[in-house]
Amino acid sequence: MAAQRSPGPDTDLRGRTALVTGAGSGIGAACARALARDGAHVLVLDRDAEAAAAVAAEIAGEALGIDLGDLDALAARSFDADILVNNAGLQTVAPIVDFDPLMFRRMLDIMVTAPFLLIRAVLPGMYARGWGRIVNIGSVHGLRASEYKSAYVTAKHALEGLSKVTALEGGPHGVTSNCINPGYVNTPLVQKQIVDQARTHGIPEADVIEKVMLVESAIKRLLEPDEVADLARWLCGPMAGSVTGASYTMDGGWSAR
Question: Which residues are catalytically annotated?
Answer without folding.
Answer: 152
